[in-house]
Amino acid sequence: MKVLVVNCGSSSIKYQLFNMMDETVLAKGLVERIGLEGSVLTHQPDGKDKVVIQEDIPNHSVGIKLVLNALTDGKHGVITSMKEIVAIGHRVVHAGEKFADSVLITPDVMNALEECIDMAPLHNPPNILGINACAELMPGVPQVGVFDTAFHQTMPKHAFLYGLPYEAYEKYGLRRYGFHGTSHKYVSQQAAEIMDQHLTNLRIITCHLGNGASIAAIKYGRSIDTSMGFTPLEGLVMGTRSGEIDPAIIPYLMKKEGMTPDQIDSYLNKKSGVLGISGVSSDFRDIEGAADTGNERAQLAIDIFAYRVKKYIGSYVAAMGGVDAIVFTAGLGENSPDIRDKICNGLEFLGTRIDPAKNKIRGKAQEISVDGAKVKIFVIPTNEELVIARDTRVICGGLI
């Protein structure tokens, strides 16, 4: 059973082709600069050389067709025909309150995704384009939507509602939704396996730390709170996003700087975060390098980031009445021993401490807490694509 996983951005398509008999990746790749000059497909078949195809890619339909051609090519392909692809799984960012789990894509589901465009104007439209392109090129092949927000639909009302008039929730769905759900779900499951315990017996805090970052409190297998909110702007300080701020700052800045709503949105989403604080970069590798040479603002950006993560960990320990494991994942969480150490320094009161020798790892699943620690600390590489492929296999199992 071969499942194609597709993640469409506004000008890009990420993909992986899985053999679900053993969950191996047969090929993966990235289509970039769709609708722009210099569009390109980078295709990596398993066990073969990487292939770079430079071609005019005016839209997502052409991009998907190029992907399918690469997968079936006589030289660098990994399947003989598109008929070998029995199902397609799509990452979809926002489904509002409409879906609490992954679903088979139907006309009603597509209508629901259209209705959620206002909540995710940068993400849902390209997700929809990708689904339509696959339906056009592979008619009859079942497709599944796997939602960033779905895993967090178990949050109780007291965790997801804002302090706004209740009518704002009823009329516009203004509430915390949370994102990175597939990542939080996957690494919590992996942590439970490593601990040789059932997920329903554990309280786990998962830290998805990258250019976009979020934390989730997972109590007995269910997300009960998470740091991102109505949009991915809320929560932690991130690469270019401000994270949580006093709401009064927005009208204040708009008046002082003469900003329009679109300009303040760009200011908070693209010019803030560790980029705005450090003045160096949105990439933590650059910021850590600058801090090592004595750049005070770069060091300040790191300190602020680590402090905010630590605060969320502490608050989620309180929310769950304790914690059994803390998990670091995503680009920064998996690859920065210094950031992990800075975050965990001061959490010894929980009964945990990082082992400096174990913490030297990058991108490898391993416990990094000292032997015998009451609360385990793990590094676990995320694999959102595998979650999507697994959900697709389960949902489409009876259809193929």
Quick structural summary:
With 400 residues, this protein is of the alpha/beta class.
Plain-language structure description:
With 400 residues, the protein is α/β, with parallel strands linked by helices. The chain folds into two domains: 2-147, ATPase, nucleotide binding domain (Nucleotidyltransferase, domain 5, 2-Layer Sandwich), CATH 3.30.420; 196-384, ATPase, nucleotide binding domain (Nucleotidyltransferase, domain 5, 2-Layer Sandwich), CATH 3.30.420.40. The chain is 37% helix and 20% strand. Strand 1 (2-8) and strand 2 form a beta hairpin. Helix 1 (60-72) packs across helix 3, helix 10 (284-292) crosses helix 11 (296-320) and helix 11 (296-320) packs across helix 13 (337-344). The longest helix has 25 residues, at 296-320. It is globular and about 55 Å long. The N and C termini lie close together (9 Å). The mean pLDDT is 93.
Look at the structure and name the CATH superfamily of the largest domain.
ATPase, nucleotide binding domain
- Total beta-strand segments: 14
Q: What overall geometry do the principal axes of the alpha carbons give?
A: globular
How many separate structural domains? 2
Q: Under CATH, the topology of the largest domain is which?
A: Nucleotidyltransferase, domain 5
Kindly state the mean pLDDT as a whole number?
93
How many helices? The count is 14
Sequence stretches where pLDDT stays below 50 over 5 or more residues? none
Strand order of the largest sheet: 5-4-3-2-1-6-8-7
Which architecture of the largest domain does the CATH hierarchy give at level 2?
A: 2-Layer Sandwich
First-last Cα distance? 9 Å
